[in-house]
Amino acid sequence: MQVHRDIDNLPVFNNAVVTIGTFDGVHVGHRQIINRLKVEAIKVNGESVIITFHPHPRKVISSAILGVRLINTLEEKIEVLSGLGIDHLVIVPF
Description:
It is built from 3 helices and 4 strands. By secondary structure, the chain is α/β, with parallel strands linked by helices. The protein has one domain: Rossmann fold. It has a 4-stranded parallel sheet with strand order 1-4-3-2. The model has no long low-confidence stretch (mean pLDDT 91).
C-alpha cells in the first residue's frame, strides 16, 4: 500500500475505485466496505484508494466540547489498512 500525505502531488491513479471515511478502529463494517472496494477495483482493472483525514474531523470540530477519544492513532490506522490489500491510502489534512 502506498501512503500519500501530500495531496498536491498525488499520482495519477489507474481506474481508481475510491472510498472516503475516517476509518477509526477499522471495524467489521469498514472491512466490508474495503473488501467491496477491492472487488470493484479488480472488475475494472483499477486501483483501490482510501481517502481519510488527519486529524480526525471530530477532533477539530468538537474536541473542545466532547473530549473526543479515538480508537487508533494515525500510524496504527495506516498499519491496519496496510494489511488489508489496498493499493493507496490518501491522507487529507483536515
